[in-house]
From TrEMBL:
Residues 181-220, 623-648 are annotated as: Disordered. Residues 25-183 form the Tyrosine-protein phosphatase domain. It comes from the Eukaryota. This is mRNA-capping enzyme. One of its GO terms (cellular component) is nucleus. InterPro entries: Dual-sp_phosphatase_cat-dom (IPR000340), mRNA_cap_enz_bifunc (IPR017074), mRNA_cap_enzyme_adenylation (IPR001339), mRNA_cap_enzyme_C (IPR013846), mRNA_Capping_Enz/RNA_Phosphat (IPR051029), NA-bd_OB-fold (IPR012340), Prot-tyrosine_phosphatase-like (IPR029021), Tyr_Pase_AS (IPR016130). PROSITE patterns: TYR_PHOSPHATASE_1, TYR_PHOSPHATASE_2, TYR_PHOSPHATASE_DUAL. The active site is at residues 126, 294. The keyword Transmembrane does not apply. In the N-terminal section; belongs to the non-receptor class of the protein-tyrosine phosphatase family. In the C-terminal section; belongs to the eukaryotic GTase family. The keyword Nucleotidyltransferase applies. GO terms for molecular function: ATP binding; GTP binding; inorganic triphosphate phosphatase activity; mRNA 5'-triphosphate monophosphatase activity; mRNA guanylyltransferase activity; phosphoprotein phosphatase activity; polynucleotide 5'-phosphatase activity. It catalyses: a 5'-end diphospho-ribonucleoside in mRNA + GTP + H(+) = a 5'-end (5'-triphosphoguanosine)-ribonucleoside in mRNA + diphosphate; a 5'-end triphospho-ribonucleoside in mRNA + H2O = a 5'-end diphospho-ribonucleoside in mRNA + phosphate + H(+).
Amino acid sequence: MAHNKIPPRWLNCPRRGQPVAGRFLPLKTMLGPRYDSQVAEENRFHPSMLSNYLKSLKVKMGLLVDLTNTSRFYDRNDIEKEGIKYIKLQCKGHGECPTTENTETFIRLCERFNERNPPELIGVHCTHGFNRTGFLICAFLVEKMDWSIEAAVATFAQARPPGIYKGDYLKELFRRYGDIEEAPPPPLLPDWCFEDDEDEDEDEDGKKESEPGSSASFGKRRKERLKLGAIFLEGVTVKGVTQVTTQPKLGEVQQKCHQFCGWEGSGFPGAQPVSMDKQNIKLLEQKPYKVSWKADGTRVERNGAKWLKEDMDILCKRNYQRSNVLSGELVRGKGKVFISPHEEGRKLQFSRYMMLIDGTNEVFMIDRDNSVFHVSNLEFPFRKDLRMHLSNTLLDGEMIIDRVNGQAVPRYLIYDIIKFNAQPVGDCDFNIRLQCIEREIINPRHEKMKTGLIDKTQEPFSVRHKPFFDIYASRKLLEGNFAKEVSHEMDGLIFQPTGKYKPGRCDDILKWKPPSLNSVDFRLKITRMGGEGLLPQNIGLLYVGGYERPFAQIKVTKELKQYDNKIIECKFENNSWVFMRQRTDKSFPNAYNTAMAVCNSISNPVTKEMLFEFIDRCAAASQGQKRKHHPDPDTELMPPPPPKRPLT
């Protein structure tokens, strides 16, 4: 680890716990001012903050035991000038429990201090203040205070949730002080273990540390959370799709997706857009972009859709080529082209997924929680030889669920490709990637279906591609016939740069939504609060990632109570946050920076009129240049027709 770098997973780790047995205060390591450039003000933990906290509790700390293997994090003089004795007791860590010698030394010095200064607290910290810290505090409680190991571990977990979270530490404690067979399983890892983009398994001296609950033999460099019982699509059972929970397959799929994307962080590697604001909208005139619609979470489709005369002209000019890709039945009529009517009351759900195609019966879906699902009976033949199957191919897209006559019809819409047969097509221009999806992914499936070698009725879901258009089509997407005829409601637009695929947060991919629909995904925590002379009441506290304090509050209603500690999507309306829906597809709230960006787009919105005006100015400025004769958007727009029957 570089000596000027903050420790991995430190940023969002809680600063401290509560006093344990009236004697110990568990902490994470403090970081001195030299790290301020890497740590936002709200996340800092200077030695002076410890002193202020102790004063607020009206308690005195007389001893601080530092278990880390470095002196670079803060200046011990800042501790000692507050009258606190500082002792360095290096514990190796890196997946190794404190040795018997470490434990005996810790117990001896704490016992001696307590005898001389009985009312004063002892502060204890390692890097994060959970495993080494908890191990030694529990050992003291057992050896010197006659606690059972069960009570010691449970008490520490209550004071510093979730407690010791490494299984080997818990087993070693029970081996020394109880029955190893009675060691509890490690708790679920806390959220801050997964929200840090620099989540390398290194400790303070730069050595690699084994991650809890996994094997280093899988070659994983990042901590990946296993979410047991993950649901592929909420409220719908998709036959042939099962969650992968066992190693090494789980780790192999996750690692392959990370490698294909060039993603060095943990978690889901897919590209993430940012909210459009008055500053980044300027990107639309600085580089080429494509645009597509942004689907809403769950909407009801329209009934009796049909194409108008102008749509027929467009289709005739293009010889129905795009419709064949997007699917749907076109019926030639006298002067008009009609699409088979929608089923009334159809509803759609949308979930983001990447798809890894890695050979016959080796198709996997990866959701935003980085959960992995195996998909059976789904073929992707090689265009040049339909008997062969694609492998080393990674797609990006979204699942939609159509409800037709009460039956669920799932479909996967592909909107990007990162790898094709191990070829790095993600480095190519976006227009080329779109062609690759149609030519190499969609068309070969259709060709094999014609031969009868693919039975689409046996597939768990169908596969299509999602079209993108020139940005000058934005007005037509939102206001033209496209918006009226597309098979589901839209809540905005996605502006995709034509450069190479970038994993993670991408400041070049812009999502525009009407200001009234801009939203943030929070973690809701309902708390009972009151005060002197006040009746206790429930308060909904809204939390975001990387911010220890509540970001905002929401009024608690009868409906909202069921979502306590869940991820909920909220919009800002009438100067307050309003519940929209639960995000069952996410286990973590938006990061602090993302939430702030959304708030900025709410307070300084790009309205639809402003967006259209800006794009019109871009069009006017391009006259006489490469875009002087850009095509009429109507000649490019053709929404996917509503299917007459389930198609691929």
